[in-house]
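Hi support team,

I'm filing this because I wasn't sure whether my run with 5,10-Methenyltetrahydrofolate finished correctly. The job status page said complete, but I'd like someone to confirm that the output block is well-formed before I use it downstream. Pasting the exact inputs I used:
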Amino acid sequence: MMELINGKAIAAEIKEELRAQLISNSYKVTLAVILIGNDPASAIYVKNKHQSCEETGIRSLVLSFPESLTQAALLEQIDMLNQRDDVDGILVQLPLPEAIDQQAVIQAIRPDKDVDGFHPQNIGALSTGHPGFAPCTPAGIIELLKRSHIGIAGKECVVVGRSNIVGKPVAQLLLRENATVTICHSQTRHLAKICQRADILIVAIGKPRAINRDYVKPGAVVIDVGIHRDNTGKLCGDVDFNDVKEIVSAITPVPGGVGPMTISMLMKNCLMAAILHQLNRVS
Ligand SMILES: Nc1nc(=O)c2c([nH]1)NC[C@@H]1CN(c3ccc(C(=O)N[C@@H](CCC(=O)O)C(=O)O)cc3)C=[N+]21
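And here is everything the job wrote out:
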């Protein structure tokens, strides 16, 4: 029987655990989110983050700016948040307007407030196994596997996609969990054949329903990171769910799979940031 991995339920459980920790230690946690422009998808994600903060007991500040915000003005805002003692985590919602250099913005965020885990210092820490913030979507995938009792050590894991925010960091985390990891991308030859090796197939390519049963070994676990909205507003992933559902042992749905886990891991990183800041204030 195929197992549907309920990311929404697991994410809710994690938020409940975090809330209990927050209350029992009287932690005060604040996340500042910067949202630029009026991309409808970004607005939904930021709203979901804000709502999760409320559920978890985290104070959330949403700073909204018009598409015309200059890079200099954005860097000034980040600098102000970097210095504010009452702000633990900073998240600049991506994608940014064309005129703004994304890398300059990411590097401007204090690494100990970088709850996205996108700063080069946190990326470096991830690849050497040192303490730091892991990116939320990759961390959510590992947590989803662990809480679904799917072993990772020794497994053949194939990651499709090599982005800085999902493909590369999830490969690092899987490696840390002692998996054998293959990363595929747009230039990979014999993609279907390589994917068929996977005990755990992680798909983050950004193409609706691109992965069908030709890419999946019977009994494999499939994690779908993609999220697309068709013209009727219906959501789908990078995996053709209906085509593969009968042959997989477990699969994440879209919506209700990886997406909610991303947000719960953000909440977890915010709590970690707050604990760090509290420690640094008393010392
Ligand atoms: N600095 C930054 N950090 C991010 O973490 C970040 C970002 N920028 N830019 C965009 C991506 C995307 N992302 C998602 C978060 C939640 C859902 C989510 O809640 N998904 C719901 C459905 C939501 C819907 O209705 O669209 C689900 O899958 O069930 C999806 C995607 C975070 N991102």
